[in-house]
Structures are given as C-alpha cells and as structure tokens.
Amino acid sequence: MTEEAYRLITPDGHELELPVHKGTTGPDVVDIGRLYNNQGVFTYDPGFIATGSCASDITFIDGEKGILMYRGYPVEQLAEHSNFIEVCYLLLNGELPTASELEEFDTTIRTHTMLNEGMLNFFKGFRYNAHPMAMLSAVVGSMSAYYHDTTDVHNPEHRDIFAHRIVAKLPTIAAAAYKLSIGQPFMYPKNGLNYTENFLQMMFSVPAERYETDPIQAEALDLLFILHADHEQNCSTSTVRMAGSSGANPYSAIAAGISALWGPAHGGANEAVLRMLDEIGDVSQIDKYLAKAKDKDDPFRLMGFGHRVYKNFDPRATIIREMAHKVLNSLPNNNETPLFELALKLEELALKDDYFIEKNLYPNVDFYSGIIYKALGIPTSMFTVMFALGRSVGWVSHWREMISDPNQKIARPRQLYVGAAERDYVPLEKR
Ligand code: ACO
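# acetyl coenzyme *A complex -> structure
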C-alpha cells in the first residue's frame, strides 16, 4: 500500500490530513483510524456502504464492470479451466498449485472426510424436521469439542489442520443433515471419489443399491462451488472475521458465518427464489409480481435480484444461466424446464422495466442456482447449505488472513448513541 493524503476541513476551519492507501486495483481508501483521537468524532456508515474493514489480497470485485477475481484470476477463467479443489488450494495458498502440490492437497482433503463417530450421535439429537442450515451451524460449532487439539489460533500448523478439516468434512456434515431429514442412513465418504462426486454419493446413494455419479451433475455442482467460493467482505465472511478477531476458536467463527449466510438477504436468497417462482407459478402472473416488487408498501422483493456491490451484472449469474441450459438439456424429461422458462421470462421483463433499470437491479448468483440444484434433485431446504459448502473455503481463507495479520485487532465498531440522556434511577414504588 502506498500513501498520499486526503485533506478534510474541520468545522472549526482546520485542515486535517488523512492518509490514503492505494490497493492493487479498485478505489483508494481513506484511513480514518486516528480521526477520533485527533477530532473526537466517529464516522457513521450503517451497513458498511463505503467502509473497508480490512486489507485483503484474496478476492477482488468491481461491481460496476461485473469483475470477480480470486487471487487475481478472473472467475470466468477458473469456471472454464479449473475445478473446485484447485480453487480451494488457490484461495487458501494464494497461488495455483503445481501438479504435485495439487495431488498432495487433493489427497489431504480426500483422507479427512470422515467425521468423529460421536458427531453422528449429535445429529440424532435433532428434531426430524430441523432445517439443514440449523444442523450445519450447530455441528460445525461442535467441531471445537471434537477437534479441540488444534484450536491454538497462533499455531500455523493448527491453522492448516483446521482449514483442511473444514473443507474436507463440511460435505459429510451437509449430506448427513440431508439424510437425517429424509430418514435414510448416513452414507460414509468414499475417498476414491473427488470432492463433488463424493458429496453426491453421500447425498444420493443408499447402502442397498449401486450408485454412479452423473458426470454433468458433478460438473454443474463443481462449477457452482467454484462460483460461490469467495466474495471478499460479504456479510458471512465479515461475520467469520469479526467472530474470529476475538481469538475465538475457528470452528465457532465458521459456525457464526454459516448462521449469517442463512438470512434471506444473503445466502438464503437461493431458497427464496424457488419459493417466489413457485408462487408466481405462470408467465401470465409476472406483471403482477413485478408491480408488487416495485410497490414501496408491499414487502415483496424480487428475490435473486439486486446486489450491494454489482450494479451492472453479476458475472456468476451469467455463467450459472449457461450451466442451467446445459443441465436441463441433459435431462430431457425433467420437471424444471417450465420453472427455468419462467425465470428467463421474469429476468427479461425485469431488465426492460424502468424501476429495475434505474436502480441497477440485475439477477445475482442466486437467481439461477436454485433451478440447477432442483434439477439435480437437491431439495430447496438444502440450497443454502450448497452455498455454504462452496463458501467454506472463502471463510477459512479470510479467517487465516485475519488471524495471521500482525496488525490484527479485535473488531469493535463504535456507534452514534441516540438513547436517553443521563437520568436518575426511580424506585419501583415511584414509577
Ligand atoms: N426487488 C425490488 N426492489 C429492490 C430489490 C429487489 N430485489 N433490491 C433492491 N431493491 C430496491 C430497494 O427497495 C431500494 O429502493 P429505494 O432506493 O427506492 O429505497 C433500492 O433498490 C436499493 O436497494 P437496497 O436494499 O438499499 O440495496 P442493498 O445494497 O442494501 O441491498 C440486497 C442489496 C440485500 C441484495 C437487495 O438487492 C435484496 O434484498 N435483493 C433480494 C435478495 C437477494 O437476492 N439477496 C441475495 C444477494 S447475493 C448474495 O448474498 C449471495
């Protein structure tokens, strides 16, 4: 980071110099860290609209141009040429692996897929209809109890083991949550299969039958994992960083991120898109629902539309739309084609509508991903879990970056207090 100054005139007419840091690319940031000490004022930016919370070298987004890069590599290139395990290595280590590095990493992940057997009992305590995200968050939180030998956040070896455990075991936990919800036996991982094939096997096989993964299914899911792998300081990743900044054990920080992801304004939107498409039901109803989305007095929003950062297009949505065509064409008798056609028409009409044009609202990553999940036989309640599987490596990468930063401090925002001014306690009998 190189520095120049940003000059601010204070209300009493003094000129204040604030350092400016320049990144590799993207907007400069004005360093206001000493503003309170110098001027006795805080800054105010609810929702962090214009506030950078850290310096990071993991992911870059240009929301105006629709650019997303992991470690400098455009996501379109990774989607076309790479695979999820290689992207995991890239995000965790900063560079693409050599062939031997990739083989070693892949083997490490494949051989750490089993859960401590006691964790399966933990699952059995959940109510039969518990939401899989609730189970995912709780079971990942419980990992600190099963793997407490490696929770020294200052030990790089512990940090590596933690990273590998999260990436390797999350699919096993996710599939177990699904199996519990449908009353089928948990399927153990098969280390001969790659990450995505193994996950499909744990989801859809049963002990009584032979199971073979469909290559297009595996390709589509692997692509979705790549596209969800990281997205810089989004809500769940910031949650992981914030929870971890206290030095809390990292499994708890990831569990906090999973909980944040579940919200409908974040990862929960993919589930909400499918509910919305089901509710709209037919192309003839689209105008009615567009009117509802535009009506300020109606809480209805077009789910899967709009993004805090992308104000032009979400590059992930473009790639996923293409994959949805490929998946649905490979399944000629699927039941999802009408839903996809409804989504395509909804997108077309919304993109022609002045409200959506003026507010720069475009389909985001969640708009088409649910249609692919549904075509693959993944139930709606598992959609956000799929997002969490992809994003887990991003969370771990950011946690590692945060905890190994020598300038790292506990995250502790300030506030604008608008409550009662000082007043005296009133005894109960006088109130
Ligand atoms: N439908 C209708 N109107 C919308 C939508 C939408 N999907 N999204 C934004 N708007 C409108 C808002 O009402 C607001 O209008 P106003 O300026 O007249 O008040 C304006 O566009 C700006 O929207 P904000 O909510 O202020 O933008 P913000 O950056 O805070 O929110 C968000 C972004 C949460 C993604 C929002 O667009 C939304 O709720 N979208 C639907 C949910 C969704 O798809 N979430 C997934 C996001 S991607 C992800 O997390 C992986």
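# post-check
The pocket of acetyl coenzyme *A is lined by residues 265-267, 269, 293, 301-308, 359, 361, 364-366 (CB under 6 Å).
Strands lie at 2-9, 15-22, 29-30, 59-62, 67-70, 73-74.
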